[in-house]
Amino acid sequence: MAEEVLESEKKELAKQYKQLLKISYRTLSAADKKLIRSAFDVAVDAHKDQRRKSGEAYVFHPIAVAKIVASEIGLDATSIAAALLHDVVEDTDYTLADLEQLFGETVAKIVDGLTKISQMPYDGDVSLQAENFRKMLLTLNEDIRVIIIKIADRLHNMQTMDSMPSHKQVKIASETLYIYAPLAHRIGLYNIKTQLEDLGLKYTEPEVYNDILSKIKESKEEQDAYIESFTQVIKDSLDAENLEYEIKGRPKSIFSIRRKMIAQNVSFDEVYDKFAVRIIYKSNNIEDEKFIAWKVYSIVTDHFRPNPTRLRDWISSPKSTGYEALHITVMGPKGRWVEVQIRSERMNEIAEKGYAAHFKYKTNEKDDGLEGWLNKLQETLENSEISAIDFVEEFKLNLYAKEIFVFSPKGDLYSLPKGATALDFAFHIHTEVGLNTRGTKVNGKLTPLSHVLKSGDQVEIITSEKAKPSANWLDYATTGKARSKIKSSLKEEQKQIASEGKEILARKLKSLKITLDERTVNQLVQFFKLKTSLDLFYRVGAGIIDNTQLKAFAASRSNALVSFFKNKIRKPDKPADVDKDEISVKYDQLVFGKDEQHLDYVLANCCNPIPGDDVFGFVTVNDGIKVHKQNCPNALQLQSNYSYRIMPAKWIDSTQREFKAQLKISGIDAVGLVNEVTKVVSNNLHIDMKKVYFDSDDGIFNGEIIVVVKNKSILDNLVQNLKKINGIDKVTRV
């Protein structure tokens, strides 16, 4: 029996090999065929004793992956060989050194990258998926092909998951939807993305999937007839222009119909653009290609009325994945909206094959679509500040983000994710530009850093050597790159203040006859209820812990008898993470709105936010302000239906925060008095003047200044200095 099985398998293998060469997208040279042949033989030999869960010989899996890589993605012979060998090192006796000797360094490197992804150790404290994903992307800098073959491998696993236990199916399917589908989308493999999404849905929500599938099958005939009637109208006009073209109707994927049903809260029948019509035309040279696209566009819109808000022109400015096409939504027969996609044959191949088709048509012009994307990714990856989960979230945001296109003052075009602000643009140009941003102009007008950009804006960044990021910048920036750079810059600045603080502390303690040693530091950290020694130094450096507080510490310490008993009762002398190299945030207050006001609030029961969570305030009718987590199940509904009642909110460390103070000044009016007052304020370091108002009435002068200061001692000092000015009678804090 076994002999017969093997006979039939041998025949099948020979057939598969021929097929692999035949369906390859690239033209294979003799050397290519030789490489693929030897990789094929090694794979068959290496996996000869292995079977899959379904019972078939294991080697059919790498062959299937190689076929996807060869035909659907259209990669080169090196990639096909690597795909055939992708499980050899992990599952069999072959080593990397063997592969390098047999197939050269590149193939070995790619296989090594693929092996690394599948052998990732589990890091206990972070989500495994996220950490794996990050490591997987780290292999990108070695070779983009690693990821592409991994996507093909995942596609074949998804296609053949039937014989697996259901808990595994769900795990693999949800990981696919979370990671691999967005990745395929970002690399421009739209066909594979669609298949991955549909298969992901099939295992995560089988009832929904089967329901939509059967409905699509039911409406197929009617749909074909509709597309037939739609195309009939256009055909004569296209023929009259002597165009060579084909028109295809394409039903929307199950996953995207499902997404629409959820997003718009409608039933299957109410999803209006369940299918698209694709017009693919022949164009013999690149020069005519654009011209023909617009010609086809004008013919379609002659017959059907277009929806002006739904025109997408990705021919003039292609997506960063290289995708080019014209999309229009028109009102077709029977009053139905139909999406029409107009592409040349070249554009169609790029849309289906993504990365690979670029090379086939590549001219000498610089093409940084994918290269640029990889470089951006590389930056995000090399930034170790960001935790794996944040990384995946940021990356996902960047994946599905719609793009906007903005111009620099010189007219260079940049693409940014939708929702990006003027500050994001500054960091997008260059980190140094971002960190030294003083202001921004959009379309020639000065705008706040938080100004959200729209496609077509011309943005100018005003920089200054002295400008540096402040904590508020995190509220203004949305892109991963900008946020991570701001965070690390703020940390640097805090560390600098801390190192100055350490010297100040040593001086101040010396005058109190206390030496600054490890024991004193531990006692100080405990006395001020802090977490780390860096917290302590930072707070001294920023003037938050001042002389009076240090004197109080000295007094508590000198009372030896009390401290002896305290020490007996007290926990061990050294707090656990006192030596940690970080400045921790004490989340002790919740503030609302741009002005960071302190208001009364209650925490919502539906999501029970705790200090430090990302939150927002919701103004209720009876209970005042309720605070919800940003990812609260009710958040989406509240934010979309009652957006006018939403208040931005965040947790802050009040000891580190600058606070606003309002000073009222009165006295006898004299020439140059206002000048004197403003001079005193601006000469005082660490003070930021927000509002100045002076009024003089018959020789009596009244004024009001609002200043932002780090702490009370700076404010007291300012009040004293203002009182010294000749002519000023009273300075009171409101």
Automatic annotation (TrEMBL):
Q: Which Gene Ontology molecular-function terms are recorded? A: kinase activity
Which GO BP terms, alphabetically?
Answer: guanosine tetraphosphate metabolic process
Q: Which GO terms describe its cellular component?
A: plasma membrane
Which family does the entry's similarity section mention? Belongs to the relA/spoT family.
Record keyword Kinase present:
yes
Task: Return the protein name.
Answer: GTP pyrophosphokinase
Q: Which PROSITE patterns match?
A: TGS (PS51880)
> What InterPro entries is this protein classified in?
ACT_dom, Beta-grasp_dom_sf, HD/PDEase_dom, NT_sf, RelA/Spo_fam, RelA/SpoT_AH_RIS, RelA_SpoT, TGS
Q: Looking at the record's lineage, which domain of life comes first?
A: Bacteria
The record's section on SMART domains has:
HDc, RelA_SpoT
The TGS domain covers 402-463
Described function: In eubacteria ppGpp (guanosine 3'-diphosphate 5'-diphosphate) is a mediator of the stringent response that coordinates a variety of cellular activities in response to changes in nutritional abundance.
Q: Which UniProt keywords apply?
A: Kinase, Transferase
